Amino acid sequence: MDGARIPRVDERILDRRGLDLLIDVLRGRGYRVVGPTASDTAIVLGELESGADLPAGWGVETGPGRYRLHRRGDDAVFAHSSGPRSWKQYLHPPRRQLWSTDRDGPWEPPVVDETPYAFVGVHGCDLAAIAVLRRVLCPDPDGDTPTARRFRSLFVVAAHCTEPGGVCFCASMGTGPAAGPGYDLALTELLDDHGHRFLVDVGTEAGAAVLGDVECRVAEADDVDRARRAVADAARHMGRHMPDTDLRGLLRRARDADVWEDVADRCLTCGNCTMVCPTCFCTTTEDTTDLTGEHAERWQHWSSCFELDFSHLHGGDVRTSGESRYRQWMSHKLGTWFDQFGSSGCVGCGRCIDWCPVGIDITEEAARLSELLPAWGQDDR
Amino acid sequence: MTRDPAIPLGYRVVARAHETHDTATLTLQPIKDSVERRFAPGQFMMLYAHGVGEVAVSVSGDPTPDSDTLVHTIRSVGAVSRALHDAPVGTVIGVRGPFGRGWRMHTHPDGDLLVVAGGVGLAPLRPVVLAALAARDRFRRLILVVGARTPANILFRSDLSAWATRDDLTVELTIDQPVSGWSGAVGFVTEALQRIDVDPARTIALLCGPEPMMRFCARALMSRGVPAGDIQLSLERNMQCGTGQCGHCQLGELLLCRDGPVVDYTVAEPLLRVPEL
Amino acid sequence: MNPPEPVLPAALAGLSEQHRTRLGNFAVAVRFAPGEPVFREDEPATRCWLLHTGSVVLSTVIPGRGTVVLETVHGGDILGCSWLAARPRWQFTAHAAAVTEATELDVVALQATAADDPAFTYAVTRALSEMIVARLHSTRARLLDLYAGRSPE
Q1: Do B3 and A144 touch (CB under 8 A)?
Q2: Which residue of A20, A24, B89, B102 pairs with B40 in a disulfide if CB–CB is 3.0 to 4.6 A?
Q3: Could you tell me if B34 and B93 lie in one domain?
Q4: What is the predicted ipTM?
Q5: C32-65, pLDDT tens digit by residue?
Q6: C145 part of contact set with chain A, CB < 8 Å
Q7: What's the predicted TM-score (pTM) here?
Q8: C-alpha A129: how far from chain center
Q9: 8 Å CB contact of B53 and A287
C-alpha cells in the first residue's frame, strides 16, 4: 500500500485461474490473505487459503434493516456489496491487549503475530474506509506502534464495483464505485461470453512486483472499454445518495436545533451501526489483574458512542438522552470528522442502513435535516 | 520512530503532601526513562495505579526547572483517583504523556495575566503562576483569584501565603462557606472577580474549575469588555487514550485530549451552550 | 469642615454627567472603623452603600450555631439591597471588618424624586439594581456547591 505509484502503461488481464494464482503468490510471499467468503447467512471476511474460498456465485440483496444472500446465475466472486464485517476488524481488532505488567513495571506490549495482511477484493468504499482509519489510528504514520506497523505492511487488491447494492451510496460520497487511490492492485471483474476474467490496474511498485509472478496477458482495448463502462454504469445505479450539500455546516446547524426527536423516537441506541461501520473507531480500555493482584493487564475493546456510559464524567454521563447520542454519532460521522481528521467519516458503504434493526437510513436523515435547516447563505465557521 | 504513547513509564512516588481531607500532592520521579517531553502548563498525564486503572491528571508542578520530576495534585473522587491519592512514598505509578494543549500565557505583550481558579482547578493553574513569576517582566499585572468551598479546602496554602505577601502579584482568595475563625472574603469567585479592575484591552484570562464556574466567570469577564479570544478555559471530559483515538473525550468538533483541555472561549462558548453535547 | 468629595464606583459610570452630579445631592462620604456596625437585622432599610475600601461582614444568628457569616462585601461592591423590598427592613446584620470607606446613598430621598424626575430616578435605580443582580447570580452559583466532590456510583 505504501509503495511508489507508477503510471499505467498497459492494462493486463488476469483470468479466473490467474486470480487463484495471485492469492497463492501472496501466501507464498508470507502474507495472510483475507477476502470475502460465504458463510451460512452472509458474505463475511475470512482468511483465504486459496481462490476456492471466494464466494463464487453468491450475491446479496440489501435494504434498510435487511440483508439476504442469494444464489447468482454466474460464478462472480466480487459482485456483492458490503457484508456485516469490514476490514477494520483486522486493522483495528475488536479486542486487543495493550500491555501487561507485574507490580512495579515495566509495562510490556504483548507479543503479537505481525504477519502482514493482504486484503483481496476491497471495494472502493472500504478502500476509502481503510484510509480514513489510518488517519485516525496512525497520527504518526512512522510511529512504532503495532497499528502503524500493520498499516504499513498491508497489501491491497481492490475490486472496482460493477454491481452496487440497494443501500450503497459510494458515488455521492466520492469513494466509488471505482476504488482508489491507495491500492497496490485493482481488479474489475468481467464475466460474459468471453469468459471470466479481471482487468488489472497496477497502483504501486509492490503491486507490479506481485503481478509479475502471475500469468497475465495484455488487455485488449475492448476489454478495457467493457470494464470502464461497467464501473461507470454502476455509478448510475446506486441504491441511494447522500444529499449534495455542505454536510459539515448542516450538522453544525443541527447541533443546537430541535430536530433530533424524530429519529430518536425510532433509534434503539443498540449501536449496531457503530459495530458494522468500517470507520467507527471508538474503544474503551479495561484494566484487569489476576487473583493475586500482582499481574495486571490493560486491554482495549471496541465501544460505541451509543453506550450510556461512553461519556461518563463526575459520577454521571454527559449524553444520556437517545437524541444526544444519535446526534453525536451522525454529527461526528458526517460533520465533525472533517474538523478532527480532515475528511468525512462516511464512505457510503450502507452497512449502517442494512444492519439497523429499525432501518434508519443516514442518507434520509441527512436529507431531512437539509430540508429543515437550509443554509440561507450562512457563513459556517 | 517515536515511542508508543500507549505504554506507561514507571515513576516512583518520592514525596507526598497533604493538601486537604481529600486532596494530596504527589512528587514523582522516573525509575528509568522519563517521558519524552517536558510538560507545558495546562497539559496532563495519564496516571496508572497498579491494578486499578488510569486517570487524566493535570501537572501541578513548576515548569521552569529542567528536571524529570513530575508533580501532580490528586483529588480522591473515584477508585483510581483514590488509589493514586493514597499511594505511599515508594509506590510505582505508570505515567503516559504529556498530552493536550496547554495555557497560552503570552498572547499580549506586557499584558495583565488574570488567573481564576475554583476548587481543585487551582492545580492546573499553579504551573502558570510559577512560570509567570519566573518571567515577571513579561507581564504588567499578575492577578490570582482563588475560590474554594471552605477554608479547609484551600490548596497550596504555603504557596498562597507566600504569594499574598508579594507586591508583584495580587491574590484574592474567597470561600463559599465560611467557618468561625475565617476573617477573609466570603462569596462566590465571581464576586472577587467583579472587584478586579480589568483592562479589557490587555487581559489574558485563564480559568479553571467546575464547568459552571468557568462559564459564569467567562460571562462576567465578557460583560466587562474582555474579548472571548482572551479568555481560556480548561475543559474536561471522559479521557482514556490521551492520543485522540478512543473517541471518549469528544466535545463537538474537539478531541479534548488533543485540541484541549485548554480551549479559547470563542471555541468553547457555543459548545458549552448545547446541553448533552 | 467639608467632608471629602464622594467617589462613585464604575457601576454608576454609565450615568450621564448631569445625573451623576444630581446623585451627589443624595450621597455622603462615610467611614466605618473595624467592628463598627453598619446596619442591624430588622431595622428599617433606608440607605445603601457603595464601598470603596475595606470590607463588611453580613451575618445572622442561628440558635445553636451562633453568628454565621453569609457573605463579605468589599471595595467596588454595593452593600444593602433590602431598601428595594416592599417592606424595607434589613434581612441581615452588617458590620465593618476593617477600616471601610464608602459613599452612603439616601435611597428614601432618592426614590422620592421619582415624581419630579423619573428619568433620573430610573437611571440610578437601574444602575444600583445591576449591581444587585450580579450579587444574586453569584449567590445562586454558590448554591450549586460546585466544588463539592461527587462520588461515583
Answers
A1: yes
A2: B102
A3: yes
A4: 0.93
A5: 999 999 999 989 999 999 999 999 999 998 888 8
A6: no
A7: 0.91
A8: 4
A9: yes
